[in-house]
Every structure is written in C-alpha cells, then in structure tokens.
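call fold(seq) -> tokens
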Amino acid sequence: MKDFIRAVESIEAVNPGLQMLDVVKGLRKAAGFETELIKQYLGDLSDAHDLVADPSVTSYVSEVINHSLSESGKEKGVVLTLDGSNVALTPMLLGLEAGLQSTVQGLYPLTLTHNLVASFLHHVHNEQTTVPFGTKGFWDSISSPKVYALSDLPSLATDALIIGGIDGFILGSEVSTSNHRERSLSDLLKSYYSHQPDASPRLISQKRRMNFKKLVSFSLLKSQMVQALTVRHNLNESERKSLDDVMNEGFDQFVHVYAVCPNIITRSQWGAAAFIGSPSYLSLPVPYLFIHHTYQPSTPCTTFDQCASDMRSMQHYHQQTNGWSDIGYSFVAGSDGNLYEGRGWNWVGAHTYGYNSKGYGVSFIGDYTSTLPIKSAMDMVRYDFTSCAVNGGRLSSSYSLYGHRQATSTDCPGNSFYHEIQTWEHYQSYLP
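ret:
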C-alpha cells in the first residue's frame, strides 16, 4: 500500500487542482478498468481525466489496480497494508468512487454483492476444487512483498477482495456524507491505512470491522444477493437447491468471519515454520480459556511487521530451545489490532500444563506485571475472540476463563493483567 500511495502522490503532484473524484476516475481510466456493472452505477469514463504521469507510474497503476487470479493460485491486484491486511484495490477504489459520486446504491454491488454472488455460483459448479469465499494467502516476503499466493482452495471472492470491498464500502459511505471528499486521495489513504489502534481516529483500517458493522445493513446485502441470484436462469433444480444452501450458509459464515471474529493473521501470513511431527487434535468445543502474557518479548508490538517478527521469534524459541512441536499458544494478541494464529482452533497447544487438551491459551505480547495491554487488544480477546469462538462452536458457551497462574506456579499473565481479567465475563476463581 505504501508504494501505491506514493504513486498516487506523484500523480497528484503533476496534476494539480484535481479533486479526489477526478483522481479516482483517472486512475481507473489509466488502468483500463470498466465493466457493464461499473457503467451501470458509475457511468462511463468519457468525462474522466487523462492523468499526466511518468510512464513507469502509469504502468504500475494499471498492474496493481487490475485484479486477477491465475490457475496456479497467484493473486494480482493485491497490496499489503501496514496493519497486515491484504487489500484488493479494485473494490476499494470502486466503493470510494461510488461515495464520491453520491451513488450510494452502488456501494453494495460494486464492493461486495457482485463478488460474493459470483463466488457462490462458481462454488456450486466447482464444489470439489473451490471454497465459497474468503481464501487467504501469503506473500513471498513480508518486508518486501512482491508475489501474493493463495494458501488454500481458491474462491472468486478471496479474502483480499472482501477486505478491499469492506474498505471501499466504509470509505465510500464516509465520503458520501462528510467533508472527506475535500481531501486528496493520498491523504485519505495515508490516514486510513497508517494509524495505530489506540491513538487514532475512528476511520482507520484497524477498526474496519467495527466501522463495517456500524455502516452496513446485512439484511439489505443479503436481499441484494438473493435478487442477483434469481436472475440466473441457467441452473437446473438440483443446482438451484445447492445454490440456495450455499448462499444461506455462506452468508452466515461471511458475517461470522468478517463482522463477529477479530482479524486473525494466519500462520502462513506471519511466516510460521512447519509443525514438527504430527499435531494432536482438540475435541471441540473446549470448556476452558487461559489468558497469558509472553513476558518475553516484553514490549508490546504495535505494527504487523513487529508482531509477525515476535511470532517467528517465539516459535523458534519454543521449537529449538524448549523442544516443543510448535509455538505453544493457541492464539496471540498483538497491540496492532490483530490476533495471530498459533496452534489455532484445532490443535492441542503447549500453553497450560495439564489443560492443553481442554482449552485455548491466548497470550498477549508484552510484560504486564505492572501495566495493562492497550484497551483495544483486551477488548479484541474479551469480546471479539470469545464471541467468534463460541459462535463458531469451538469454545463452550459456558466456558470458564482463568489466568495461567491458576494452573501452575508462575506469575503469568502478570499481576496487573491478572487483576484485570478477574473482572472479565466467565472468570472463575476455582480451577478444578
């Protein structure tokens, strides 16, 4: 995203006086991106400016805006943001353009509806080789990302397309009702994608789930999807029934993943090494949740780069020094707005001796002996993670929450933090 913003800044510098809408439409024209759906809601590009730009910048913009997915699983048109999200630029820019044109009725189809419907339809016809939506991926390098590849079966609504669509929906909604449209595009993008969770305004990418839930009408989104599917006449009765099932189940799962759960950075995204040996599987739902702090690293991580590095460092220590099969924690909370997958939902961890097969261990990066994690990180685990785990059938609805020290002789999760979690829902003073 930093490279894209720099390209936008260079274009704005040699095209002074253009409004944000002019730049957004000019970028789309330079990229040659126009479909019947886009023309239906945004009109054609006949009045779009021909932006003056260095040929190398124009070439880069065209490549990075146009989204594509190869048969080998390489996804183009995706950028990595400072918060660790992978964002497809096309739906983000289309949503922004719809908001700038005050074409609010186009926000849903241009950002989310069309891609989700196309993906559900594709899945009905290719059930064995695709997933309904949300396939995540990983970069060849976190520090210098060039190639983004999917890490599972493909979908036409990949995670990057959905995140880009959510951002486009949020930004389009905001500029349609506020003075944000008076800003430059580069300034809006820098502000949205560069802040940190607890020292920033509401309109930032780390708070996209909160803003999305506030702005979206899920009933309207679903009704638009149903309407879009009813015009598909080339389906037989069996395919229609399968599509209805996929759409209903898929939509509920979409809401669960993108509006209930926190943003979970997968193992492949933070650069995890392979599990040593064969993992043991948990019997779900588990009844216990244990809260930890890492102690080392002792400093909270506030960026994706730093948190991902801390995850790799802890995994190396746990595997190479402790002799464990993997990083011990089930999940790890950063102070960057993300929850990091350790052993994950299904694998038995090495976090709480005697209870590893009975619960999840969630650790917070930092030493919380005398201080607390930032509020957004605590809320992410206290509310979002637990709701995600319970609603997903992974954590019992009557789960018991404990501090690590209640199971063994340790100061974990630190005196200050332990005092805090005693006020959390489901905390129990007695551990059987």
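The chain has a mean pLDDT of 94.
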